[in-house]
Design brief:
With 149 residues, this protein is α/β, with parallel strands linked by helices. 48% of the residues lie in helices and 16% in strands. The chain has six helices and five strands. It has a five-stranded parallel sheet with strand order 2-1-3-5-4, sandwiched between helices. α2 crosses α3 and α4 runs parallel beside α5. It is globular, with a radius of gyration of 14 Å. 38% of the residues are buried. Bound molecules: D-ribose.
Length: 149
């Protein structure tokens, strides 16, 4: 799969670990995140990957900050993005099966390397279930439309 990844200064080491993990599994990973503390906010990284995923340039995105929350909120401001914060694999599976999340986020101050890998595996092995979940995802899109100018 083609994956866009980004992180802020709080997640440089974990980003490097998961990027290598994904590449070793045969995925193509484009890195838009920090490799040193450049004073760039998580908001910028979240928006960047959000735009690329929403434009259809990637199969999905991976965002990592201290908690996964700030960077996912930023991405979720981009229309078409459904970013979910996951701290364990069950949520990672369900955000794909039920919410059709196109970005998975987690926190380097919350999860360790092995949990991060299990989150990614659970997300990538899952499939959107459609049906009643598709109706609800369409309702999310309706909210975006309601508030867009
Ligand atoms: C940076 O200190 C931290 O605020 C950021 O990584 C993230 O956790 C924000 O949600």
């Amino acid at each position: 799969m083609k994956i866009a990844i980004a992180n802020d200064h709080a997640a440089i080491e974990l980003k490097q670990v998961v990027k290598k993990y994904l590449e070793e599994k045969g995925h193509s990973v484009d890195d838009f995140g920090a490799d040193k503390n450049e004073g760039i906010s998580y908001t910028v990284y979240g928006e960047t990957v959000g735009e690329k995923v929403a434009a259809g340039e990637y199969d999905f995105g991976v965002l990592i900050c201290g908690t996964g929350v700030g960077i996912s909120i930023a991405a979720n401001k981009v229309p078409g993005v459904r970013a979910g914060v996951c701290s364990e694999p069950t949520t990672a599976r369900l955000v794909k099966e039920h919410n059709n999340a196109n970005i998975i986020a987690f926190g380097a101050r919350i999860v360790g390397e092995e949990v991060a890998k299990s989150i990614l595996d659970a997300y990538m092995e899952a499939e959107f279930q459609g049906g009643r979940h598709a109706e609800r995802v369409n309702m999310l899109t309706d909210i975006e439309k309601k508030y867009s100018k």
